[in-house]
What does this fold into?
Amino acid sequence: MTDTQISDEKILQAEVERLRETGLGLLSPDADLRAMAQLSIAINAFKKQQNAVIAGHVYQRPEILTAISDFTGDSYKLAKLCSQTDAKTIVFCGVRFMAETAKLLNPDKTVILPSPMAACTLADSITADDVRALKEKYPGLPVVTYINTTVAVKAECDCVVTSANAQKILTKLYQKHKRIIFVPDAFMGANIVATLGKKPGEDIILWKGSCVVHEHFSPALLRRYRTQNPGLKILSHTECPPEILKESDFAGGTSDMMDFIANTPAPAYMLVTECGLGELARMRFPDKTFIAMCRLCPYMKLTGLHEVLQSLENPEPAQIVQNPDKVTSEKALAALNMMFELAES
It folds into this structure.
């Protein structure tokens, strides 16, 4: 073995150990860690060369989050961090609406979506024409959109919210308005206004969109797991149907759920959401017990290390996110800025 080979092997082994220490060793055998390390070394080298950062949503594959991401989080956190970075290029490991949001907030930066087919059932459930029709039917009502929408839909709305800040923002809006239009997630809208003492149809107009991951969990199965595991804490995402939240000890966004785990002792936890959050929780809290109750998002899992490396080396036109026309971009950005203003005031 030559000196170069010995040096390369030492670098590779050091990267394997780094990945193992992040918690990936709990999920992956050594052979997989070695293959991941070869890719992560190349990806992290390209990042430095190109002044790029990688944003990873918490539903991404664990190797994306731990091996290459510069920051991880939910939609709100990633939107903020993307707007604050000095990097020239943002590689967004998530789904399309998230990369579009990053581009809106960073119009002069290159934003890359490694998997252009990474869509979202919520975002696909509503169009800008649908929002315009709602505004014609209910003139004068403020329109609030969950962040899981296209730029064109955001441009037709007054304010964007995420699962982490929706209740706070709606509370403020109800101080000035008796009735609100909320799109596209009917379950989230109903869950939030229930906590505010409001009624769907009367105080809030809902669109019938839902998330393919969260819409089909079973309340009966939750009750069975609770019986089998005394002291179990069940945490559910607010995109789940109301009957799921009734069986839960806590409901919130992904960041809220992680904070609950960190600050609330329990013999076991069940996260009723996309499987990626459970994997991340196992790595961050190796001394805690987690019981699986999740579904994979087929879109979130499209992005792997190979796709990220290719998109950095030689991005294809479909992987480079473009803003729409100036008017649409400005209107969508105004709705996003309204979110930041209301969430942080």
Observations:
- Residues 219-296 form a domain with the Rossmann fold fold (CATH 3.40.50.10800).
- The CA atoms of residues 60 and 131 lie 30 Å apart.
- The first strand starts at residue 52 and ends at 57.
